Inverse folding.
Protein backbone atom coordinates (compact mmCIF):
# COMPACT_ATOMS: atom_id res chain seq x y z
CA UNK A 1 0.00 0.00 0.00
CA UNK A 2 1.18 3.50 -0.77
CA UNK A 3 3.13 4.68 2.22
CA UNK A 4 5.35 7.08 0.32
CA UNK A 5 5.94 10.28 2.18
CA UNK A 6 5.08 13.39 0.33
CA UNK A 7 6.07 16.90 1.18
CA UNK A 8 3.21 18.53 2.96
CA UNK A 9 1.96 21.75 1.51
CA UNK A 10 0.72 24.38 3.85
CA UNK A 11 -2.85 23.54 4.67
CA UNK A 12 -4.15 26.79 3.27
CA UNK A 13 -2.60 26.17 -0.10
CA UNK A 14 -3.96 22.70 -0.22
CA UNK A 15 -7.38 23.82 0.89
CA UNK A 16 -7.59 26.32 -1.87
CA UNK A 17 -6.39 23.98 -4.53
CA UNK A 18 -8.77 21.26 -3.43
CA UNK A 19 -11.78 23.50 -3.41
CA UNK A 20 -10.77 25.80 -6.17
CA UNK A 21 -14.26 26.96 -6.87
CA UNK A 22 -14.94 28.29 -3.42
CA UNK A 23 -15.27 32.01 -3.18
CA UNK A 24 -12.62 33.60 -1.04
CA UNK A 25 -15.14 35.12 1.38
CA UNK A 26 -16.50 31.68 2.09
CA UNK A 27 -12.98 30.48 2.47
CA UNK A 28 -12.24 33.12 5.10
CA UNK A 29 -15.38 32.11 6.93
CA UNK A 30 -14.31 28.51 6.84
CA UNK A 31 -10.92 29.35 8.26
CA UNK A 32 -12.56 31.05 11.21
CA UNK A 33 -14.80 28.08 11.83
CA UNK A 34 -11.77 25.88 11.72
CA UNK A 35 -9.62 27.87 14.12
CA UNK A 36 -12.49 27.85 16.52
CA UNK A 37 -12.88 24.17 16.56
CA UNK A 38 -9.24 23.06 16.19
CA UNK A 39 -10.67 20.86 13.53
CA UNK A 40 -9.97 17.48 12.06
CA UNK A 41 -9.34 19.14 8.77
CA UNK A 42 -5.81 20.30 9.49
CA UNK A 43 -5.15 16.79 10.71
CA UNK A 44 -6.66 15.34 7.59
CA UNK A 45 -4.56 17.53 5.39
CA UNK A 46 -1.41 16.60 7.21
CA UNK A 47 -2.36 12.98 6.86
CA UNK A 48 -2.76 13.30 3.12
CA UNK A 49 0.53 11.50 2.72
CA UNK A 50 -1.08 8.33 4.00
CA UNK A 51 1.83 7.87 6.34
CA UNK A 52 -0.05 9.48 9.17
CA UNK A 53 -1.76 6.34 10.38
CA UNK A 54 1.52 4.61 11.15
CA UNK A 55 3.21 7.66 12.61
CA UNK A 56 4.53 6.63 16.03
CA UNK A 57 3.18 9.66 17.88
CA UNK A 58 -0.18 8.81 16.47
CA UNK A 59 0.04 5.19 17.57
CA UNK A 60 0.82 6.43 21.06
CA UNK A 61 -2.33 8.56 20.98
CA UNK A 62 -4.41 5.55 19.98
CA UNK A 63 -2.80 3.37 22.61
CA UNK A 64 -3.58 6.01 25.20
CA UNK A 65 -7.17 6.34 24.03
CA UNK A 66 -7.63 2.58 24.32
CA UNK A 67 -6.08 2.26 27.79
CA UNK A 68 -7.68 3.57 30.94
CA UNK A 69 -10.73 2.37 32.75
CA UNK A 70 -13.16 3.19 29.96
CA UNK A 71 -12.63 4.21 26.37
CA UNK A 72 -13.98 7.66 25.63
CA UNK A 73 -15.64 7.11 22.30
CA UNK A 74 -15.73 10.75 21.30
CA UNK A 75 -11.98 10.94 21.64
CA UNK A 76 -11.55 7.73 19.71
CA UNK A 77 -13.81 8.95 16.90
CA UNK A 78 -11.77 12.09 16.50
CA UNK A 79 -8.56 10.10 16.20
CA UNK A 80 -9.99 7.37 14.00
CA UNK A 81 -11.47 9.83 11.51
CA UNK A 82 -8.02 10.33 10.00
CA UNK A 83 -7.22 6.65 9.71
CA UNK A 84 -6.53 3.81 12.12
CA UNK A 85 -3.24 1.86 12.27
CA UNK A 86 -3.99 -1.49 10.59
CA UNK A 87 -3.15 -3.72 13.53
CA UNK A 88 -5.42 -1.71 15.85
CA UNK A 89 -8.27 -1.66 13.37
CA UNK A 90 -10.17 -4.77 14.55
CA UNK A 91 -10.46 -3.58 18.17
CA UNK A 92 -11.16 0.01 17.19
CA UNK A 93 -13.86 -0.85 14.66
CA UNK A 94 -15.61 -3.05 17.22
CA UNK A 95 -15.58 -0.13 19.66
CA UNK A 96 -16.65 2.54 17.18
CA UNK A 97 -19.63 0.48 16.09
CA UNK A 98 -20.73 0.01 19.66
CA UNK A 99 -20.30 -3.74 19.37
CA UNK A 100 -17.47 -4.04 21.90
CA UNK A 101 -17.92 -2.45 25.30
CA UNK A 102 -15.88 0.69 26.09
CA UNK A 103 -15.28 -0.84 29.50
CA UNK A 104 -12.29 -3.20 29.27
CA UNK A 105 -13.32 -5.17 32.35
CA UNK A 106 -16.55 -6.44 30.86
CA UNK A 107 -15.47 -6.33 27.21
CA UNK A 108 -14.20 -9.89 26.88
CA UNK A 109 -17.17 -11.41 28.65
CA UNK A 110 -19.69 -9.46 26.58
CA UNK A 111 -17.94 -10.30 23.32
CA UNK A 112 -18.02 -13.99 24.16
CA UNK A 113 -21.73 -13.70 24.85
CA UNK A 114 -22.42 -11.91 21.53
CA UNK A 115 -20.38 -14.46 19.61
CA UNK A 116 -22.35 -17.31 21.17
CA UNK A 117 -25.56 -15.50 20.35
CA UNK A 118 -24.52 -15.38 16.70
CA UNK A 119 -23.73 -19.09 16.67
CA UNK A 120 -27.21 -19.73 18.09
CA UNK A 121 -28.84 -17.56 15.44
CA UNK A 122 -26.90 -19.11 12.59
CA UNK A 123 -27.71 -22.62 13.71
CA UNK A 124 -31.35 -21.74 14.23
CA UNK A 125 -31.80 -20.10 10.81
CA UNK A 126 -29.04 -21.28 8.54
CA UNK A 127 -28.10 -24.80 9.61
CA UNK A 128 -31.56 -26.31 9.12
CA UNK A 129 -32.91 -28.71 6.52
CA UNK A 130 -34.38 -27.17 3.37
CA UNK A 131 -37.81 -28.60 4.29
CA UNK A 132 -38.05 -26.30 7.29
CA UNK A 133 -37.66 -23.16 5.21
CA UNK A 134 -40.49 -21.18 3.65
CA UNK A 135 -40.48 -20.59 -0.12
CA UNK A 136 -39.33 -17.02 0.40
CA UNK A 137 -36.49 -18.20 2.57
CA UNK A 138 -35.44 -20.77 0.01
CA UNK A 139 -35.41 -18.12 -2.69
CA UNK A 140 -33.41 -15.74 -0.55
CA UNK A 141 -30.85 -18.37 0.34
CA UNK A 142 -30.56 -19.35 -3.30
CA UNK A 143 -30.02 -15.73 -4.25
CA UNK A 144 -27.33 -15.26 -1.62
CA UNK A 145 -25.62 -18.47 -2.73
CA UNK A 146 -25.54 -17.22 -6.33
CA UNK A 147 -24.15 -13.84 -5.24
CA UNK A 148 -21.37 -14.91 -2.89
CA UNK A 149 -19.08 -16.19 -5.67
CA UNK A 150 -19.75 -12.91 -7.53
CA UNK A 151 -18.60 -10.76 -4.60
CA UNK A 152 -15.47 -8.64 -5.32
CA UNK A 153 -14.48 -11.14 -8.03
CA UNK A 154 -11.24 -9.27 -8.74
CA UNK A 155 -9.84 -9.98 -5.27
CA UNK A 156 -8.79 -13.63 -5.34
CA UNK A 157 -8.98 -14.04 -1.59
CA UNK A 158 -12.76 -13.88 -1.75
CA UNK A 159 -12.84 -16.76 -4.20
CA UNK A 160 -11.93 -19.26 -1.45
CA UNK A 161 -14.79 -21.62 -0.77
CA UNK A 162 -14.54 -21.28 2.99
CA UNK A 163 -14.72 -17.48 2.75
CA UNK A 164 -17.79 -17.67 0.54
CA UNK A 165 -19.45 -20.09 2.94
CA UNK A 166 -18.89 -17.68 5.84
CA UNK A 167 -20.20 -14.80 3.75
CA UNK A 168 -23.30 -16.80 2.89
CA UNK A 169 -24.00 -17.66 6.51
CA UNK A 170 -23.54 -14.05 7.68
CA UNK A 171 -25.76 -12.62 4.95
CA UNK A 172 -28.52 -15.14 5.34
CA UNK A 173 -28.63 -14.81 9.11
CA UNK A 174 -28.65 -11.03 8.81
CA UNK A 175 -31.40 -11.07 6.19
CA UNK A 176 -33.67 -13.35 8.21
CA UNK A 177 -33.25 -11.14 11.25
CA UNK A 178 -33.98 -7.98 9.25
CA UNK A 179 -37.19 -8.81 7.43
CA UNK A 180 -38.03 -5.16 6.65
CA UNK A 181 -35.29 -5.13 4.04
CA UNK A 182 -34.22 -8.73 3.66
CA UNK A 183 -31.19 -9.36 1.50
CA UNK A 184 -30.53 -6.61 -1.03
CA UNK A 185 -27.68 -7.02 -3.51
CA UNK A 186 -24.75 -4.83 -2.52
CA UNK A 187 -25.04 -5.77 1.14
CA UNK A 188 -22.77 -8.66 0.21
CA UNK A 189 -20.10 -6.10 -0.70
CA UNK A 190 -20.51 -4.41 2.68
CA UNK A 191 -19.41 -7.52 4.57
CA UNK A 192 -16.06 -7.73 2.78
CA UNK A 193 -14.18 -4.96 4.65
CA UNK A 194 -15.27 -6.54 7.93
CA UNK A 195 -14.14 -9.98 6.80
CA UNK A 196 -10.79 -8.60 5.80
CA UNK A 197 -10.23 -6.65 9.00
CA UNK A 198 -11.35 -9.34 11.43
CA UNK A 199 -9.42 -12.06 9.62
CA UNK A 200 -6.30 -9.88 9.78
CA UNK A 201 -6.26 -10.56 13.54
CA UNK A 202 -5.53 -14.20 12.83
CA UNK A 203 -3.59 -14.24 9.56
CA UNK A 204 -0.20 -12.72 8.77
CA UNK A 205 1.11 -11.07 5.66
CA UNK A 206 -0.88 -9.67 2.76
CA UNK A 207 -4.38 -10.95 2.15
CA UNK A 208 -3.32 -12.42 -1.22
CA UNK A 209 -1.47 -15.11 0.74
CA UNK A 210 -4.16 -15.78 3.33
CA UNK A 211 -5.68 -19.20 3.54
CA UNK A 212 -8.74 -19.46 5.72
CA UNK A 213 -8.51 -23.24 5.89
CA UNK A 214 -5.53 -22.73 8.25
CA UNK A 215 -7.85 -21.31 10.89
CA UNK A 216 -9.59 -23.30 13.61
CA UNK A 217 -13.40 -23.52 13.40
CA UNK A 218 -13.57 -21.51 16.63
CA UNK A 219 -11.63 -18.63 15.12
CA UNK A 220 -13.70 -18.67 11.94
CA UNK A 221 -16.85 -18.64 14.00
CA UNK A 222 -15.61 -15.62 15.99
CA UNK A 223 -14.71 -13.73 12.82
CA UNK A 224 -18.13 -14.48 11.37
CA UNK A 225 -19.83 -13.31 14.54
CA UNK A 226 -17.86 -10.05 14.54
CA UNK A 227 -18.73 -9.46 10.88
CA UNK A 228 -22.37 -10.19 11.53
CA UNK A 229 -22.70 -7.81 14.47
CA UNK A 230 -20.65 -5.07 12.87
CA UNK A 231 -22.73 -5.27 9.68
CA UNK A 232 -25.88 -5.06 11.79
CA UNK A 233 -24.59 -2.04 13.68
CA UNK A 234 -23.46 -0.31 10.52
CA UNK A 235 -26.80 -0.77 8.81
CA UNK A 236 -28.77 0.31 11.89
CA UNK A 237 -27.96 3.91 10.96
CA UNK A 238 -29.18 3.30 7.40
CA UNK A 239 -32.32 1.29 7.91
CA UNK A 240 -34.29 2.78 5.04
CA UNK A 241 -31.47 2.41 2.53
CA UNK A 242 -32.50 -1.17 1.85
CA UNK A 243 -36.22 -1.26 2.49
CA UNK A 244 -38.79 -1.19 -0.31
CA UNK A 245 -37.84 1.36 -3.03
CA UNK A 246 -34.76 2.28 -0.98
CA UNK A 247 -36.02 5.71 0.12
CA UNK A 248 -32.91 6.44 2.17
CA UNK A 249 -30.69 6.21 -0.90
CA UNK A 250 -33.11 8.24 -3.00
CA UNK A 251 -33.07 10.96 -0.37
CA UNK A 252 -29.27 11.08 -0.31
CA UNK A 253 -29.12 11.26 -4.09
CA UNK A 254 -31.46 14.23 -4.00
CA UNK A 255 -29.24 15.94 -1.45
CA UNK A 256 -26.15 15.13 -3.47
CA UNK A 257 -27.61 16.79 -6.52
CA UNK A 258 -28.41 19.92 -4.54
CA UNK A 259 -25.00 20.01 -2.93
CA UNK A 260 -23.14 19.64 -6.22
CA UNK A 261 -25.24 22.43 -7.67
CA UNK A 262 -24.25 24.60 -4.75
CA UNK A 263 -20.54 23.81 -4.89
CA UNK A 264 -19.95 23.76 -8.62
CA UNK A 265 -22.71 25.23 -10.68
CA UNK A 266 -20.90 24.72 -13.98
CA UNK A 267 -20.62 20.97 -13.54
CA UNK A 268 -24.14 20.76 -12.25
CA UNK A 269 -25.51 22.70 -15.22
CA UNK A 270 -23.46 20.67 -17.69
CA UNK A 271 -24.78 17.42 -16.27
CA UNK A 272 -28.31 18.68 -16.49
CA UNK A 273 -27.92 19.94 -20.05
CA UNK A 274 -26.55 16.58 -21.12
CA UNK A 275 -29.49 14.81 -19.49
CA UNK A 276 -27.38 12.94 -16.98
CA UNK A 277 -29.20 11.98 -13.81
CA UNK A 278 -27.51 11.42 -10.49
CA UNK A 279 -29.46 8.21 -10.03
CA UNK A 280 -27.63 6.80 -13.04
CA UNK A 281 -24.29 6.67 -11.25
CA UNK A 282 -24.75 7.61 -7.59
CA UNK A 283 -27.17 4.80 -6.82
CA UNK A 284 -24.42 2.20 -6.86
CA UNK A 285 -22.05 4.54 -5.04
CA UNK A 286 -24.45 4.76 -2.11
CA UNK A 287 -25.86 1.25 -2.26
CA UNK A 288 -22.34 -0.20 -1.90
CA UNK A 289 -20.87 2.67 0.15
CA UNK A 290 -18.28 3.37 -2.56
CA UNK A 291 -16.61 -0.03 -2.22
CA UNK A 292 -16.83 -0.54 -5.97
CA UNK A 293 -15.42 2.87 -6.82
CA UNK A 294 -11.95 2.70 -5.28
CA UNK A 295 -9.26 -0.02 -5.13
CA UNK A 296 -10.04 -2.58 -2.46
CA UNK A 297 -6.83 -1.91 -0.51
CA UNK A 298 -8.08 1.63 0.22
CA UNK A 299 -11.52 0.61 1.39
CA UNK A 300 -10.60 -0.03 5.03
CA UNK A 301 -9.06 3.45 5.29
CA UNK A 302 -12.25 4.96 3.91
CA UNK A 303 -14.26 2.95 6.39
CA UNK A 304 -12.20 4.28 9.34
CA UNK A 305 -13.82 7.62 8.57
CA UNK A 306 -17.25 6.05 8.03
CA UNK A 307 -17.20 4.33 11.40
CA UNK A 308 -15.83 7.43 13.12
CA UNK A 309 -18.82 9.36 11.76
CA UNK A 310 -21.16 6.85 13.38
CA UNK A 311 -24.83 7.78 13.09
CA UNK A 312 -23.92 10.89 11.10
CA UNK A 313 -22.51 8.75 8.29
CA UNK A 314 -25.45 8.98 5.85
CA UNK A 315 -25.25 12.79 5.93
CA UNK A 316 -21.52 12.81 5.53
CA UNK A 317 -21.63 10.29 2.69
CA UNK A 318 -23.30 12.92 0.55
CA UNK A 319 -20.27 15.16 1.02
CA UNK A 320 -17.86 12.34 0.25
CA UNK A 321 -19.76 11.57 -2.96
CA UNK A 322 -19.75 15.23 -3.98
CA UNK A 323 -16.05 15.42 -3.29
CA UNK A 324 -15.38 12.25 -5.27
CA UNK A 325 -17.45 13.46 -8.22
CA UNK A 326 -15.85 16.90 -8.31
CA UNK A 327 -12.36 15.41 -8.24
CA UNK A 328 -12.92 15.37 -12.00
CA UNK A 329 -14.89 18.59 -12.43
CA UNK A 330 -12.68 19.81 -15.29
CA UNK A 331 -12.84 16.48 -17.09
CA UNK A 332 -16.59 16.19 -16.71
CA UNK A 333 -17.16 19.53 -18.42
CA UNK A 334 -15.58 18.15 -21.58
CA UNK A 335 -17.72 15.00 -21.76
CA UNK A 336 -21.07 14.44 -23.42
CA UNK A 337 -23.85 12.33 -21.90
CA UNK A 338 -22.56 8.98 -23.04
CA UNK A 339 -18.95 9.68 -22.12
CA UNK A 340 -20.01 10.97 -18.74
CA UNK A 341 -22.06 7.90 -17.82
CA UNK A 342 -19.19 5.63 -18.84
CA UNK A 343 -16.70 7.74 -16.91
CA UNK A 344 -18.76 7.84 -13.74
CA UNK A 345 -19.53 4.14 -13.84
CA UNK A 346 -15.84 3.31 -14.24
CA UNK A 347 -13.95 5.95 -12.31
CA UNK A 348 -10.22 6.09 -13.09
CA UNK A 349 -9.18 5.30 -9.51
CA UNK A 350 -7.27 2.05 -10.22
CA UNK A 351 -3.94 3.62 -9.39
CA UNK A 352 -5.09 5.65 -6.45
CA UNK A 353 -3.05 5.70 -3.28
CA UNK A 354 -3.97 7.00 0.15
CA UNK A 355 -3.07 10.46 -1.02
CA UNK A 356 -5.99 10.81 -3.44
CA UNK A 357 -8.40 9.29 -0.96
CA UNK A 358 -7.30 11.67 1.81
CA UNK A 359 -7.88 14.58 -0.54
CA UNK A 360 -11.42 13.41 -1.21
CA UNK A 361 -12.08 13.06 2.51
CA UNK A 362 -10.58 16.37 3.56
CA UNK A 363 -12.47 18.26 0.88
CA UNK A 364 -15.66 16.50 1.99
CA UNK A 365 -14.95 17.59 5.53
CA UNK A 366 -14.36 21.16 4.47
CA UNK A 367 -17.62 21.34 2.50
CA UNK A 368 -19.44 19.75 5.37
CA UNK A 369 -18.23 22.50 7.71
CA UNK A 370 -19.20 25.13 5.16
CA UNK A 371 -22.60 23.93 4.11
CA UNK A 372 -24.08 21.57 6.60
CA UNK A 373 -25.15 24.05 9.22
CA UNK A 374 -26.29 26.62 6.74
CA UNK A 375 -29.23 25.15 4.90
CA UNK A 376 -29.83 28.55 3.33
CA UNK A 377 -26.76 27.89 1.26
CA UNK A 378 -28.55 24.97 -0.27
CA UNK A 379 -31.90 26.63 -0.59
CA UNK A 380 -30.80 29.56 -2.71
CA UNK B 1 -18.79 9.63 -35.11
CA UNK B 2 -22.18 10.75 -36.34
CA UNK B 3 -25.20 8.52 -36.58
CA UNK B 4 -28.36 8.44 -38.60
CA UNK B 5 -30.34 7.20 -35.64
CA UNK B 6 -29.77 6.58 -32.00
CA UNK B 7 -31.77 3.75 -30.42
CA UNK B 8 -32.07 3.27 -26.69
CA UNK B 9 -32.28 -0.27 -25.32
CA UNK B 10 -32.95 -1.79 -21.99
CA UNK B 11 -31.89 -5.28 -20.88
CA UNK B 12 -34.18 -6.98 -18.36
CA UNK B 13 -34.61 -10.37 -16.75
CA UNK B 14 -33.90 -12.23 -13.51
CA UNK B 15 -30.65 -11.76 -11.64
CA UNK B 16 -27.79 -13.98 -12.77
CA UNK B 17 -29.14 -14.82 -16.24
CA UNK B 18 -26.20 -13.07 -17.90
CA UNK B 19 -27.55 -9.64 -18.86
CA UNK B 20 -24.28 -7.84 -18.11
CA UNK B 21 -22.27 -10.54 -19.87
CA UNK B 22 -24.39 -10.21 -23.02
CA UNK B 23 -23.80 -6.47 -22.99
CA UNK B 24 -20.06 -6.86 -22.43
CA UNK B 25 -19.82 -9.40 -25.24
CA UNK B 26 -21.69 -7.04 -27.54
CA UNK B 27 -19.80 -3.83 -26.68
CA UNK B 28 -16.32 -5.18 -25.90
CA UNK B 29 -16.34 -8.60 -27.56
CA UNK B 30 -15.15 -10.34 -24.43
CA UNK B 31 -16.53 -12.65 -21.77
CA UNK B 32 -16.02 -12.27 -18.06
CA UNK B 33 -16.78 -15.60 -16.32
CA UNK B 34 -17.40 -13.98 -12.93
CA UNK B 35 -19.09 -10.64 -13.37
CA UNK B 36 -19.79 -8.16 -10.56
CA UNK B 37 -23.42 -7.98 -9.52
CA UNK B 38 -25.16 -5.12 -11.27
CA UNK B 39 -26.41 -2.56 -8.80
CA UNK B 40 -29.07 -0.23 -10.18
CA UNK B 41 -28.11 0.12 -13.85
CA UNK B 42 -25.05 -0.10 -16.02
CA UNK B 43 -24.53 1.48 -19.37
CA UNK B 44 -22.99 0.45 -22.67
CA UNK B 45 -22.96 1.76 -26.24
CA UNK B 46 -21.91 0.67 -29.71
CA UNK B 47 -22.29 1.71 -33.34
CA UNK B 48 -23.84 -0.71 -35.80
CA UNK B 49 -24.87 -0.44 -39.44
CA UNK B 50 -28.31 -1.13 -40.80
CA UNK B 51 -29.26 -0.52 -44.40
CA UNK B 52 -25.88 1.22 -44.81
CA UNK B 53 -26.80 3.70 -42.12
CA UNK B 54 -24.74 4.17 -38.95
CA UNK B 55 -26.89 3.56 -35.92
CA UNK B 56 -25.83 4.16 -32.36
CA UNK B 57 -27.16 1.87 -29.66
CA UNK B 58 -27.22 3.13 -26.08
CA UNK B 59 -28.01 0.29 -23.74
CA UNK B 60 -29.14 0.30 -20.11
CA UNK B 61 -28.37 -2.97 -18.41
CA UNK B 62 -30.58 -3.25 -15.34
CA UNK B 63 -30.15 -5.07 -12.04
CA UNK B 64 -32.36 -8.13 -11.91
CA UNK B 65 -33.10 -8.34 -8.21
CA UNK B 66 -36.67 -7.63 -7.23
CA UNK B 67 -35.63 -4.99 -4.69
CA UNK B 68 -34.24 -2.75 -7.44
CA UNK B 69 -37.41 -2.93 -9.51
CA UNK B 70 -38.63 0.52 -8.50
CA UNK B 71 -35.30 2.01 -9.65
CA UNK B 72 -35.02 0.09 -12.90
CA UNK B 73 -38.64 0.67 -13.95
CA UNK B 74 -37.85 4.28 -14.77
CA UNK B 75 -35.62 3.05 -17.62
CA UNK B 76 -38.44 1.43 -19.56
CA UNK B 77 -39.77 4.82 -20.47
CA UNK B 78 -37.69 6.07 -23.35
CA UNK B 79 -36.50 2.68 -24.56
CA UNK B 80 -37.08 1.67 -28.18
CA UNK B 81 -35.90 -1.89 -27.69
CA UNK B 82 -35.73 -4.40 -24.89
CA UNK B 83 -33.82 -7.63 -24.52
CA UNK B 84 -35.71 -9.90 -22.15
CA UNK B 85 -33.26 -12.53 -20.96
CA UNK B 86 -33.64 -15.88 -19.19
CA UNK B 87 -31.17 -18.63 -18.42
CA UNK B 88 -31.88 -21.92 -20.22
CA UNK B 89 -30.31 -23.83 -17.30
CA UNK B 90 -32.57 -22.29 -14.64
CA UNK B 91 -36.23 -23.01 -15.04
CA UNK B 92 -37.40 -20.33 -12.61
CA UNK B 93 -35.88 -17.58 -14.75
CA UNK B 94 -38.13 -18.78 -17.59
CA UNK B 95 -41.14 -19.00 -15.31
CA UNK B 96 -40.74 -15.34 -14.38
CA UNK B 97 -40.91 -14.11 -17.97
CA UNK B 98 -44.60 -13.32 -17.76
CA UNK B 99 -43.96 -10.99 -14.81
CA UNK B 100 -41.25 -9.19 -16.73
CA UNK B 101 -43.50 -8.75 -19.74
CA UNK B 102 -46.26 -7.43 -17.56
CA UNK B 103 -43.81 -4.90 -16.10
CA UNK B 104 -42.65 -3.89 -19.57
CA UNK B 105 -46.18 -3.51 -20.90
CA UNK B 106 -47.06 -1.31 -17.94
CA UNK B 107 -44.06 0.97 -18.00
CA UNK B 108 -42.74 1.01 -21.55
CA UNK B 109 -44.26 2.61 -24.62
CA UNK B 110 -46.51 0.27 -26.54
CA UNK B 111 -44.30 0.13 -29.63
CA UNK B 112 -41.19 -1.05 -27.83
CA UNK B 113 -39.59 -3.98 -29.67
CA UNK B 114 -38.94 -6.89 -27.36
CA UNK B 115 -36.47 -9.65 -28.12
CA UNK B 116 -36.61 -12.80 -25.98
CA UNK B 117 -33.22 -14.37 -25.33
CA UNK B 118 -32.51 -17.78 -23.86
CA UNK B 119 -28.95 -17.24 -22.67
CA UNK B 120 -26.21 -19.74 -21.79
CA UNK B 121 -27.05 -22.05 -24.70
CA UNK B 122 -23.43 -23.28 -24.54
CA UNK B 123 -24.47 -25.19 -21.40
CA UNK B 124 -26.80 -27.53 -23.26
CA UNK B 125 -25.89 -30.44 -20.94
CA UNK B 126 -27.56 -28.50 -18.09
CA UNK B 127 -30.51 -27.32 -20.13
CA UNK B 128 -33.75 -26.98 -18.16
CA UNK B 129 -35.84 -25.14 -20.75
CA UNK B 130 -36.20 -26.52 -24.26
CA UNK B 131 -35.81 -24.37 -27.37
CA UNK B 132 -39.41 -25.17 -28.32
CA UNK B 133 -40.73 -23.77 -25.05
CA UNK B 134 -38.83 -20.54 -25.68
CA UNK B 135 -40.22 -20.36 -29.20
CA UNK B 136 -43.71 -21.09 -27.98
CA UNK B 137 -43.59 -18.36 -25.33
CA UNK B 138 -42.28 -15.85 -27.85
CA UNK B 139 -44.99 -16.74 -30.33
CA UNK B 140 -47.76 -16.41 -27.76
CA UNK B 141 -46.57 -12.96 -26.74
CA UNK B 142 -45.48 -11.61 -30.09
CA UNK B 143 -41.77 -11.47 -29.37
CA UNK B 144 -38.74 -12.22 -31.49
CA UNK B 145 -36.80 -15.19 -30.07
CA UNK B 146 -33.22 -16.42 -30.07
CA UNK B 147 -31.05 -18.63 -27.97
CA UNK B 148 -27.64 -17.11 -27.37
CA UNK B 149 -24.43 -17.50 -25.42
CA UNK B 150 -22.58 -14.55 -23.95
CA UNK B 151 -19.69 -16.94 -23.41
CA UNK B 152 -19.20 -18.15 -26.97
CA UNK B 153 -20.73 -14.99 -28.50
CA UNK B 154 -23.21 -17.13 -30.43
CA UNK B 155 -26.16 -14.99 -31.58
CA UNK B 156 -25.12 -12.03 -29.45
CA UNK B 157 -24.51 -9.66 -32.37
CA UNK B 158 -27.60 -11.05 -34.05
CA UNK B 159 -29.81 -10.36 -31.04
CA UNK B 160 -28.84 -6.71 -30.73
CA UNK B 161 -28.76 -6.09 -34.46
CA UNK B 162 -31.99 -7.79 -35.41
CA UNK B 163 -33.75 -5.83 -32.67
CA UNK B 164 -32.34 -2.68 -34.26
CA UNK B 165 -33.46 -3.87 -37.71
CA UNK B 166 -37.00 -4.33 -36.40
CA UNK B 167 -37.01 -0.83 -34.93
CA UNK B 168 -35.59 0.56 -38.16
CA UNK B 169 -38.32 -1.15 -40.12
CA UNK B 170 -40.94 0.34 -37.82
CA UNK B 171 -39.50 3.78 -38.49
CA UNK B 172 -39.69 3.19 -42.24
CA UNK B 173 -43.28 2.08 -41.81
CA UNK B 174 -44.07 5.29 -39.94
CA UNK B 175 -44.99 3.58 -36.70
CA UNK B 176 -43.11 6.16 -34.62
CA UNK B 177 -43.16 9.88 -34.42
CA UNK B 178 -39.36 9.99 -34.23
CA UNK B 179 -39.36 13.62 -33.21
CA UNK B 180 -40.76 12.45 -29.89
CA UNK B 181 -37.78 11.24 -27.89
CA UNK B 182 -39.91 9.29 -25.46
CA UNK B 183 -39.91 6.48 -28.01
CA UNK B 184 -36.19 6.01 -27.36
CA UNK B 185 -35.19 7.10 -30.84
CA UNK B 186 -33.16 10.12 -31.83
CA UNK B 187 -32.62 11.25 -35.38
CA UNK B 188 -29.09 12.24 -36.34
CA UNK B 189 -27.53 13.11 -39.67
CA UNK B 190 -29.18 11.48 -42.65
CA UNK B 191 -32.06 9.98 -40.74
CA UNK B 192 -35.63 10.54 -41.79
CA UNK B 193 -37.22 13.31 -39.78
CA UNK B 194 -40.49 12.43 -38.17
CA UNK B 195 -43.85 12.99 -39.85
CA UNK B 196 -44.42 16.12 -37.77
CA UNK B 197 -41.29 17.78 -39.11
CA UNK B 198 -38.79 16.33 -36.73
CA UNK B 199 -35.47 17.55 -35.54
CA UNK B 200 -32.85 19.44 -37.37
CA UNK B 201 -31.25 16.68 -39.40
CA UNK B 202 -27.77 18.14 -39.08
CA UNK B 203 -27.64 18.22 -35.33
CA UNK B 204 -25.69 15.01 -35.05
CA UNK B 205 -23.37 14.80 -32.10
CA UNK B 206 -19.85 14.64 -33.41
CA UNK B 207 -17.01 13.13 -31.45
CA UNK B 208 -19.14 10.94 -29.23
CA UNK B 209 -17.49 7.85 -27.87
CA UNK B 210 -18.98 4.82 -29.49
CA UNK B 211 -16.94 1.93 -28.21
Amino acid sequence: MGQSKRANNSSEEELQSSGNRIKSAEFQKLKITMTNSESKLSDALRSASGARAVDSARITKFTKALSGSSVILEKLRELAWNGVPPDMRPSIWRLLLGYASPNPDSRGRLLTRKRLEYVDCASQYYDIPETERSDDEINMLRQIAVDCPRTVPDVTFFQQEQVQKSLERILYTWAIRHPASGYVQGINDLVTPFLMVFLSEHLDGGMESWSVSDLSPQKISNVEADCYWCLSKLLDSMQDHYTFAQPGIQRLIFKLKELVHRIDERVSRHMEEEGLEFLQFAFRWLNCLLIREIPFHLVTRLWDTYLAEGDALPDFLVYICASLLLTWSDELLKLDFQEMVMFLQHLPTQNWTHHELEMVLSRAYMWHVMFNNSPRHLAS
Amino acid sequence: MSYAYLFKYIIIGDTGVGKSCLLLQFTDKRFQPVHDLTIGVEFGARMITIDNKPIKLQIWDTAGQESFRSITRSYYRGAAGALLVYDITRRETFNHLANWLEDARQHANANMTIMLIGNKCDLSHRRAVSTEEGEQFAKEHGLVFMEASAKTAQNVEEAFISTAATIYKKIQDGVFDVSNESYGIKVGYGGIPGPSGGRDGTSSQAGGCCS
Remarks:
- Strands of chain B lie at 5-12, 41-50, 53-62, 81-87, 113-119, 144-147, 185-187.
- Residues 194-211 of chain B have pLDDT under 50 and may be disordered.
- Chain B touches chain A through 25 residues (CB under 8 Å).
- Chain B has six helices and seven strands.
